[in-house]
Every structure is written in structure tokens, then in C-alpha cells.
Amino acid sequence: MGLKADLYLDRADPLRYLSPLDCKQCGSSTCSQWLEKLKAGTARPQDCPSLGASRAHGLEVFLSIREVMPEVDVTQHPMAGQTGRLEINAPEPHSPVLVTGNALQTQEVVLAVLSTTSAPFHLLFVDTKGHTVDMAMIYNTFTAEAVWKAALDSGLESVLSHRQLIIPGLAASVKESLEKGGKWQVTVGPICAGELPLFFGDRWTRPSQKGSAGCGLGCEESDLTGSPPGKARQ
Length: 234
Ligand code: SF4
Known about the structure:
10% strand; binds iron/sulfur cluster; 3-methyladenine DNA Glycosylase II, Chain A, domain 3; three-stranded mixed sheet; Rossmann fold; two-stranded parallel ribbon
């Protein structure tokens, strides 16, 4: 059995996404206590009134994230997937843009997480020479230039009504250079892709039973993306 890649689950903190008020309406003294009950299966996300339906779903997904995210092997050599733009759930011009690298492992993990929502996204795979984002930072393949090139070559700019990008938390150091020139505004997302359902909060809508995102949590299998992973726009 091969060595499994670090998916940085230990860097995700669900408590950050709960109200800091400890309002006790769930019957627990603190959010932290409630979270422990949730993990133990003795509480339900719906018990916290500060979470709407989508945030409760996001938390549910996060708590099951080990079932959602595939285990990926550490490989000796980088394995490059497609670069370019992929439409998730028929995005609109104002839909958010998630940026990541083009390692096959990264694509597999991010798409698995995105399969738990019907929310629309533009997904931009930057040519990191097949490096996962952590390795891309070491080998300097996740750069502002690489992101600009992917945005330009994929036609991303022409389909957007905004200029905002969300980059992986591990690539936070690229934010400043990426914003140089004033074209793009950059938000640093979570380090762990499994935290995306929490990060997007109310946006992380539950897939409907039919005709929306595919699913790792008991809904019907259906069309996950606007175009399959192998057909990202160049
Ligand atoms: S109801 Fe929600 S916000 Fe209030 S203490 Fe419980 S978990 Fe925290």
C-alpha cells in the first residue's frame, strides 16, 4: 500500500465558523462542547439556530469529509491533469472563482468536495507542472504569472463580471504579487480543501435529489460539472 498524501485535515478548524457568542440555544454551554457532541453523533447540525440550512449542510459535509475526500497516493513524480477552466454547476458571470494547481491528486480531491454542493463555481486549474499546491510552493510553480496565464488562456476574464480569485491557503504568499497591477483581487481560502464547505457557508447549498451536483452524501449521482474534468477549457 502506497504512502498517502497529507490532505491537511488537521489544519481545518470548524469552530472558527460557528458564532463566537456561545448562546447555549443548542443545549450545550459552548460551541466547542456542542461540536464535540456533534462529532460523537449525539447532536445534529440543525440544533444550532445560528446555522442556516446551507451552513448546517456544510458542517455535515465537513464532519463526513474523510468519506468524501479520496485518499490519494504520494507519487514520486508530479502527475499533471488538465489546466484551464472548469465550470461547476453552471456558473454565472458573478460566481466565485476557485484557483488551484493541476496535480491529478488535487483535482480529484477538490472535485470530490465540490460534489457535495449544488453551488456554482468557476474552477481554474493553473499549470503547476503537476505539483500539488504544497509542492508547487516549494518548487515555485504556483506563481502569479502561472495564474495570470491560466486566467488569460482559459478565457476566464471574458466570462466574469468580477475580478476576484480565491486561492488555496497554502499559496497565501502569492496573494500580494497576484494583486500587483490591480487587475485581480485575491481572497486566501482554506489550507485544506475539506474546509471549503465551511468557508463558503451559506453558499454551500445541498445538492437537490435530481439534476444538480453529484454527491458523496447519499443523494443521487448526476452531472457533477458543466464539463467533465478531462475537458477543462484551455
Ligand atoms: S446554539 Fe450554536 S452558536 Fe449557540 S452555543 Fe450552540 S453551537 Fe454555539
